[in-house]
Write a structure and sequence with these properties.
6 strands, 4 helices, alpha+beta, three-stranded antiparallel β-sheet, 36% helix
Length: 218
């Protein structure tokens, strides 16, 4: 059974020896889970294929109604279920305008009410976090996600202590070192996931797959 927000909270609280939530608040744990989830999603994204009518005519197509989109893989337009040989659209770019994900088609115009299909790489969701109803991380990534959440939790707690006291005790410095070690291990595991055959696209290419840039991968 897929783990929920509460499952991840309990697992990390147990790992950190803070079952009463005295040192690690729910808000801190939620933020850490969100950070780890986004980082994991950049390495092993949730593939969403969505078909919808173009809301308004223009060169830009908003994807704001989809799950958090990190990249667009393919676009088919104008799309019809009966057209089995429709070639993917070319000449488009993925970018963000005021934080909103958008496809810009420099060589043409999306026409209102015509259907479009988009294959997008999106953030995974965890049930109970930010209103999500279901958890989407594959089972083989759950331990990696827990490790990342623990790392970000410890680093956030260390930052709180440093801000509050102006310096860290030797024990607190040890905690910071632990968080940095966990984060390094989490990042290494994300690199392995990126090239894993478990990826929804097979092994992601090391070159050309740049979720962080403005261009779609084509």
């Amino acid at each position: 059974m897929a783990r929920t927000r509460d499952d991840y909270h309990l697992a990390v609280q147990t790992l950190l020896g803070d079952l009463d939530g005295v040192r690690y608040s729910e808000a801190l744990l939620d933020d850490a889970l969100g950070q780890a989830l986004h980082a994991l999603s950049l390495a092993s994204p949730l593939a969403i294929e969505a078909t919808f009518p173009v809301p308004e005519s223009g060169q830009e197509l908003s994807l704001a109604d989809l799950a958090p989109v990190n990249a667009v893989i393919e676009v088919w337009y104008p799309f019809s279920e009966d057209d089995f040989w429709l070639e993917p659209l070319g000449g488009w770019h993925f970018l963000r305008l005021s934080g909103s994900p958008v496809i810009r088609w420099k060589n043409g115009t999306f026409r209102q009410a015509e259907m479009v299909r988009v294959l997008a790489a999106c953030d995974h969701q965890v049930a109970g976090l930010n209103g999500a109803e279901a958890s989407t991380p594959p089972p083989h990534t759950e331990e990696t996600l827990k490790l990342g959440m623990a790392a970000y939790s410890v680093l956030a707690r260390s930052a709180q202590l440093l801000e509050r006291h102006g310096a860290l005790t030797s024990d607190q410095k040890g905690l910071l070192d632990l968080g940095e070690k966990w984060l390094a291990r989490f990042e290494r595991q994300c690199v392995h996931l990126r090239a894993s055959p478990f990826s929804p696209y097979g092994a992601l290419p090391k070159q050309g797959w740049t979720l962080g840039n403005a261009d779609g991968w084509q």
